[in-house]
Amino acid sequence: MPLYLVIIASPLILLPFFLVFGFLFISLFRFEEDHNYHYLLPIAGAGILVIILAALTQIGFQILVSASIILALAVCGSIFTIIRLGAYELVVIVRKLLMPLLLFIISYMILMSPFIIQNQVGVSGYNIGNDSVVHTILADDISNNGLIISKPFITSFASNFSNDFSDILVDNSSSQVTSTMLFLGYPIGFHIVLGMVSAIVGQLSFFLFNSVAAIFVSLGVFVFFFLARYLKIRSWLIPIMSLSITLTYLTVGYYLQ
């Protein structure tokens, strides 16, 4: 798949889900407009998407079946939201979200710029050859095989466990890696979403890992935008501060990885 399609695919798939489920959330739990909670709408939508997808995966649905169910829920949620809120209120909220949405896109493109410049899905220093490999193994294996936990494997390996996963990665299959991580309670919300995007696009998770990660981290823009409005910072400073703080978080988060 061409790189530009990889970069475009993730936000085109995930952002509509974030917004639809976020609108559904605020239509169910009406908030006072003066409190600016609408800026957190995409955050709530992302959380709802993760919860639903994790529940469907736990039940045992294949990842593409889960994606189809989520799409159906999104369509039903959109209809309910339009009826519940009305066209006028929807337009008002959308207008409020235009600036943070623009900042979200800018943040995402800045993070993805090294991949665009070098025209490849992996760039040295961006998690290539370390944790990203484990994350993509988890995403692909969960989307292909579901949540399978093998306790006997854990028992045989536990005596040599030394607070890292190097022995697992060298000596055992990807399914054993996934089984072990799940048994140890590793959080998999991000990996299930990554697996869904990969299945829809038809690519291995490795090729979409950085773009999906960039989307989740760029959601910080909405949090900082909300806080800036809550603190009544001057309007012309809000976009600059929101983007600057988010990009700082991106840098720290990636290099601490």
Helix and strand arrangement:
Elements: H1 3-28, H2 41-59, H3 63-85, H4 87-118, H5 131-145, H6 151-158, H7 166-171, H8 174-183, H9 189-201, H10 209-218, H11 220-230, H12 238-256
Helix pairs in contact: 1-2, 1-3, 2-3, 2-9, 3-9, 4-10, 4-11, 4-12, 5-8, 5-9, 9-10, 11-12
Sheet with most strands:
none
**DSSP strand (E) fraction?**
under 5%
What form results from the Cα inertia axes? globular
Number of strands: 0
Q: What's the order of the H and E elements?
A: HHHHHHHHHHHH
**Uncertain spans:** 150-162, 165-172, 252-257
Structural class: mainly alpha
Structural overview:
There is one protein chain. With 257 residues, this protein is mainly α. It contains twelve helices and no strands. It has helices at residues 3-28, 41-59, 63-85, 87-118, 131-145, 151-158, 166-171, 174-183, 189-201, 209-218, 220-230, 238-256. The model is unreliable at 150-162, 165-172 and 252-257 (pLDDT under 50).
Short description:
This protein has 12 helices and no strands. The chain is mostly helical and about 260 residues long. The longest helix is centred in the middle third of the chain and has 32 residues, at about 85-120.
